[in-house]
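Field reference: sequence -> structure
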Amino acid sequence: MTAHRVPAGVPEMGLEKYLRRAWPLVPGRVLRDALKRRDVRVNGARSGADARVCGGDELALYIDAKWMEPEPDVLWTDDKLIVAVKPQGLPVDADRDGVGADTLLTRLQRRFPGARLCHRLDAQTGGIVLAAADDAVWEQAFAAFKDHGVQKTYRALALGRFDKEQGTLHAWLVKDARRAEVRVLHRDAPGARPITTNYRVIGEAAPGLTRVELEPVTGRTHQLRAHMADFGHPLLGDDRYGDRAANRRFPGAKLCLWHARLTIPADSPLVDYRGKTFEADTPEWIK
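Structure field:
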């Protein structure tokens, strides 16, 4: 049994909706079966899909612990710096309403109490994420990411064929906080920030689909997704910035973006880890 308190401030919503948001990687069939059997209790009462919950409610979930409290995928650690591999679809932290019983951070903190994230990935982007369970290492990592003291390499599937095998893209990015998205501009403007992205073609994945490596020289919100779409090669599965009609030609495709490799340069603020490179196995959709 998993005991859970809905965080204070969470607005009222349906129980099933809350469970999907709080545990996003639990298969829908598992949640539906649990609600059908009334294996979820809200404030002590056995409840089904029609129940409502809000901040402060106490839940008891009689669902297999492998779904409710999964172990983190740790690629490497010395118990101070943690190199984790985040599954696609798992948020790094709770959302703006405080919902997030299963996030990368909660998984890490069960094994490393006090762990803190050093940077973030979008929920639908998978791959390497650094965290720290030591204050000094966290401060070094924070400085490293702020000053571009790490090198990040992503692998992706992009639509279309490329004219050049590699290149560097330059533009400006404007963030729309209200809509939680960005726009790419080709000239400077108020509120815009410069972006630079390196790309390298790996090979053809399928007709009209190309494997690429992407390096964000700058690290802006949704930079790779928006920049590649603006370049004319949106990422497969990206319905926000990409080509929805093209995505439908590949049924079931998720956002095909994976943080595959992270290198800590020789002059990085992460003094004890200079020169280290960490690489995560690539998912099947890249292969």
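Note: The chain has a mean pLDDT of 96.
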